[in-house]
Amino acid sequence: MVVYSTPVFTPVGPTLLPSNNRCLPLCSIATTPAFLAVPIIKRTCNVSVVWHLIFMKMFSCFLPHSWRLVAVSSKPSGRWHTFVDSAKVRFACELSISIYLLILKFMHLDAACGHGWTSMKGRIAFWCAFSNNTGVVAYRLYGQQCDNCQGESYEPAMWYPEEMEKVLWNICSRVAHVFYGCARPPIQLNRRPGKPKNPHNSEKCQACKDGVCAERR
């Protein structure tokens, strides 16, 4: 059972849910704040803060109801509404040198892997619940294994800000439809342009291992 120990993040700003209109006029994906308009969100910064900033902006439309975003390592127990989304992401192998030196005895590779690759199938899973005017959106980001050094650990994805906004817009729209009866807008499927050198490798994909890597997206 997942135990939520993170603080509650209450959205700020005026509500966008008029009583006589059940459609949800969400903010545009093109409205990314200037301080988030960077090429990619790297692991050297506090990525969770960026996720929460965008989440609070999106979910402020549900005020006075309170919604919070919680990162989890597995699906929460109980009854949750599930939504899986995709994005273009970047990976970089950070296999520790001590482990890698052992591999070097059997493979002709450089002393540091540092292999990077792009995937058009970066996966994120959302689980949503709403009760007593309070909602929770639990999420999990899935990784991929490096196919250069054959490391067994899953590298975390580095997300582009516009991809983060896109998937949070999609889950916000889904919450509005499921829990507030709003019209269901089309899912945003657009991604940053890119042409990965290799096809998606399901053997190296954590989401595929967990059965959430659907090829339909």
TrEMBL record:
Q: Which UniProt keywords apply?
A: Membrane, Metal-binding, Receptor, Transmembrane, Transmembrane helix, Zinc, Zinc-finger
GO MF, one annotated term: olfactory receptor binding
Q: Give the protein name, as stated in the record.
A: Putative receptor-transporting protein
Pfam families cross-referenced by the UniProt entry: Zn_ribbon_3CxxC
Tell me which species this is from: Nephila pilipes (Giant wood spider)
What membrane topology does the UniProt entry give? Single-pass membrane protein
Question: Which residue numbers delimit the 3CxxC-type domain?
Answer: 86-211
* Alphabetical GO biological process terms: protein insertion into membrane; protein targeting to membrane
Highest taxon, organism lineage: Eukaryota
Q: Where in the cell is it found?
A: Membrane
Gene Ontology CC entries for this record: membrane
